[in-house]
Design goal:
Radius of gyration: 18 Å
Strand content: 5-15%
Distance between the termini: 31 Å
Length: 135
């Protein structure tokens, strides 16, 4: 085993975004397409041109969705495909002692599907405060 491979990472906290970071695609886009057809694209274009914020666009888009939360989660779980190499990256971090969390607004199901540690964003902020107090 090389010295680099043997290096412990117990001191490291890795916080990852879910959509289009650890996944091979943007699950929000898939979700919106499956639940609203092309209607969500009407607010996507002005957002891409910088005319409205991403938050404003998402508010408009999520307002178009008319399916139960359980169905939304089913769609995202089915769509969540890990980015090539992510599983090995995660395994290496964990095996060397790093703490890894996915910071997201509510994607526990897709994370659990792939065995990825998950923390809601609010929980992550609290965890960071605890770590800061401990050092």
């Amino acid at each position: 085993m090389s010295a680099a491979a043997a290096t412990r990472l117990d001191h490291l906290l890795v916080a990852l975004d879910f959509d289009d970071t650890i996944t091979a695609q943007d699950c929000n886009d898939i979700l919106l397409q499956q639940t609203t057809g092309d209607a969500w694209l009407e607010s996507e274009a002005p957002m891409l041109r910088g005319e409205i914020s991403r938050t404003a666009a998402f508010r408009i888009q999520s307002g178009l969705i008319r399916v139960p939360r359980e169905r939304l989660l089913e769609i995202v779980v089915a769509a969540a495909t890990l980015r090539d190499g992510f599983a090995g990256f995660l395994e290496e971090l964990v095996s060397r002692g790093a703490r890894v969390v996915v910071v997201s607004g509510g994607l526990r199901g897709p994370c659990e599907k792939h065995g990825i540690p998950y923390r809601p964003f609010e929980s992550f902020i609290g965890m960071m405060a605890e770590l800061e107090r401990a050092t």
